[in-house]
Write a structure and sequence with these properties.
single chain, alpha+beta, PH-domain like, four-stranded antiparallel β-sheet, 23% strand, rod-shaped
Length: 180
């Protein structure tokens, strides 16, 4: 696992679910195209991860967008180069006030690029976990709401498994379907 920010463990991250739990009906806690959380497993893009084999669940944020980082670095280097070149020419006292204002405003270009890049292409939300002895990326999305719904459903499923599973679905006989 190589997240760029410190990982946060989910509640009950060290929970060991007994493999000898009695068979219970499968209850959907979250179901959207490509991702499904049931009372027995996490299913992502066709891969099935039984809850009994998932331990040390952690959330993290992925790396920042490479294009954004490159744009910030290039504009910073260009602006520093312009400042150094003007300093070596010795013509700083001949520049007009508007040139100084323009150079001052240009210094905010890397900051504006970083803010815009973070807004338009945010770092991915990642769910990591130990599965069969290896720490792997279980789920990744750039949508905060979907990530929150999936992690909450996974927490509910792990708590239910620890407490003896769901005898019936929590609210009704229909699976949980979040609003679009």
């Amino acid at each position: 696992m190589e997240p760029t920010r410190p990982a946060r463990p989910l509640p009950d991250a060290e929970l060991e679910i007994p493999a000898t739990a009695p068979a219970r009906p499968t209850v959907d806690l979250y179901h959207q195209p490509g991702i499904r959380v049931t009372s027995q497993a996490l299913i992502v893009a066709g891969r099935r991860f039984p809850l009994t084999e998932l331990t040390q669940l952690q959330t993290a944020r992925g790396p920042h967008d490479r294009l954004t980082l490159r744009a910030v670095v290039v504009t910073t280097v260009v602006l520093v180069g312009i400042g150094v070149a003007l300093g070596y020419t010795g013509d700083l006292h001949r520049l007009s006030a508007m040139t100084y204002v323009g150079l001052g405003l240009a210094a905010f270009v890397p900051v504006a690029l970083a803010v815009a890049g973070h807004r338009w292409r945010p770092p991915a939300y990642e769910l990591w976990g130990r599965y069969r002895g290896s720490m792997i990326l279980l789920f990744s999305t750039d949508q905060e709401r979907q990530f929150g719904q999936v992690t909450r459903a996974l927490i509910r499923a792990r708590e239910a498994a620890r407490l003896g599973a769901f005898a019936h679905p929590p609210a009704s006989d229909t699976p949980y379907e979040p609003l679009p």
